[in-house]
TrEMBL record:
Broad enzyme group: oxidoreductase
UniProt protein name: Gamma-glutamylputrescine oxidoreductase
Keywords from the named record: Oxidoreductase
Listed InterPro entries: FAD-dep_OxRdtase, FAD/NAD-bd_sf
PANTHER family associated with the record: FAD DEPENDENT OXIDOREDUCTASE DOMAIN-CONTAINING PROTEIN, SARCOSINE DEHYDROGENASE-RELATED
Matches recorded under SUPFAM superfamilies: FAD/NAD(P)-binding domain
Superkingdom of this protein's organism: Bacteria
GO cellular component: cytoplasm
Domain FAD dependent oxidoreductase: 36-395
Gene assigned in the entry: puuB_4
An MF annotation (GO) of this entry: oxidoreductase activity
E.C. no: 1.4.3.-
Length: 440
């Protein structure tokens, strides 16, 4: 399954890169070009928008700072699951009402279905596995909360989950000293995120969309009836623009974005393949994707080739010593949660940015007071399904085939500015301390 990566330029160091034989480097934008719609960012959101727009007959240019697969879409955990907000179901109901919360839940399920349907339609083998996902109680007392959650989801959303006690976890291959019960959600599956993304990029090119690599947009300015996107070696003019930079977006591209998002690091490690003996020593043989009940959660799954993927929050700073400390902390957590594998080497370790917003909900819509500029961003760490579907939806808003109110209310609210944005990293550090304490 592993192939020698022939990626000529900088690599992320991810297992996903090593699992494909080629990561395509699209040509840089040199000179000037005009498109009906220009998209900033070649992740799931930008490429999904580009695909839909190109198929509707519009000329599309996607400007990507590095290459398809550089952003979070090429380096995530591959959990195609519910999510996209940091508000829980109760908060969503309080803020938007039960009907809108239900509409939003249905939207998340539709996102999962869209990804599954695409893989099937395109004939892509993305190493899929796992029927649904399981949330594991990291303290005995959390099992009671999972039971309450199961009843709440059934009563309000009609979602039928399954609650597992400790003995069921052990007998079904979810063994570990920190797993005291579980809640199985029937939605979602796991995939190789880069294989999916590369296929999406191919679909865009086949539909006539142009993707430019190594073309970071450094400015967006009004130019007559169009917008002009500046890059190092040229510019693009377009009447409409889709912002899809998410956790990699530049703060002032356009100026409206300044102080409105918070990039947050997440980190992943992948071990060497485990033997059958090692799997049974730990008692973990299930192939269901899993996360724990911590606020600073860990997410993990046994990959089809028996490697173990283990993800957790990243650090605050991207300097080398901070990254080393982050990987060490993640490895310690792994050894605590899976002690029988303390001797098993980590073969791949990498990190990337997710995107948080002050509202704690994504934004899929037209940017206020910037006619023709649309944004689809802020998936709060769960973007495979959410960004894929929202990319399609933003295309609908751009062409006018969809109205703002067709979207669930939680997606309609433009990002608010963080108070004193310069201190965002400090807020994050504070949140980590508080959550770390609550998780004990
Ligand atoms: C380590 C990690 C694990 C994760 N695990 C999961 C998971 O298991 N399940 C899940 O659902 N989600 C997960 N996520 C989140 C998910 O990957 C993202 O929400 C999703 O990929 C975002 O897609 P996107 O298209 O919005 O942005 P991205 O994929 O980040 O793409 C944005 C692109 O925009 C480009 N860009 C930004 N600014 C500019 C500019 N000015 N000019 C040109 N290009 C620009 C960037 O280079 C980047 O390639 C994870 C994320 C990380 C980092």
């Amino acid at each position: 399954m592993l192939q020698q990566s022939r990626t000529p330029r900088e690599t992320i160091g991810s297992y996903w890169e090593a699992s494909v034989d080629h990561v395509r480097q699209d040509r840089q934008l040199i000179g000037n070009a005009h498109f009906d719609v220009a998209v900033i960012g070649a992740g799931y959101a930008g490429l999904s928008a580009a695909l839909k727009l190109a198929k509707s007959g519009l000329s599309i240019g996607v400007l990507e700072a590095e290459h398809v697969g550089f952003g979070a879409s090429g380096r995530n955990g591959g959990f195609c699951c519910l999510g996209g907000t940091k508000l829980d179901a109760r908060q969503l109901i309080r803020r938007f009402g039960l009907d809108e919360a239900r509409k939003f839940a249905a939207y998340q399920v539709a996102g999962i279905n869209l990804v599954a349907q695409r893989l099937e339609n395109w004939g892509v083998d993305a190493d899929c596995h796992s029927k649904g996902e399981i949330c594991l109680a990291h303290r005995p007392k959390d099992l009671a909360s999972l039971k309450e959650e199961a009843a709440f989801l059934k009563d309000n959303f009609g979602i039928r989950t399954r609650v597992l006690g400790k003995s069921e976890l052990d007998s079904e291959g979810y063994g570990g000293p920190e797993f005291h019960g579980g809640l199985h959600m029937p939605y979602g599956f796991a995939l190789n995120p880069l294989k999916y993304l590369l296929a999406l990029g191919d679909q865009v090119r086949q539909a006539g969309g142009r993707i430019f690599g190594k073309s970071p947009v450094t400015g967006v300015n009004q130019d007559g009836e169009c917008w002009r996107l500046e890059t190092e070696h040229g510019y693009v003019r377009a009447k409409k623009i889709v912002l899809a930079g998410n956790g990699y977006a530049r703060e002032t591209v356009p100026k409206w974005l300044h102080g409105r998002t918070l990039p947050v690091m997440s980190s992943i490690q992948v071990t060497r393949p485990l033997s059958e003996g090692e799997l049974s020593d730990q008692g973990w043989t299930a192939d269901t994707m899993a996360a724990d009940t911590r606020k600073l959660l860990h997410y993990f799954r046994l990959l089809p080739d028996r490697r173990f993927l283990f993800g957790t929050r990243g650090g605050i700073f991207e300097k080398a010593p901070a990254l080393t400390a982050m990987q060490k902390r993640a490895r310690n957590d792994f050894e605590t949660m899976f002690p029988a594998w303390a001797h098993v080497e980590t073969e791949f370790a990498w990190h990337g940015n997710v995107c948080l917003a002050r509202n704690l909900t994504p934004f899929v819509g037209e940017v206020p007071r910037m006619d023709g500029i649309y944004a689809a961003m802020g998936w709060h760490g769960s973007g495979i399904a959410m960004a894929s579907l929202s990319g399609e939806k933003i295309a609908g808003l751009v062409t006018g085939s969809l109205r703002r109110d067709d979207l669930p209310s939680p997606l309609q609210i433009p990002f608010r500015k963080f108070p004193l944005p310069a201190f965002r990293k400090l807020y994050l550090q504070g949140a980590y301390w508080i959550y770390g304490w609550l998780d004990r």
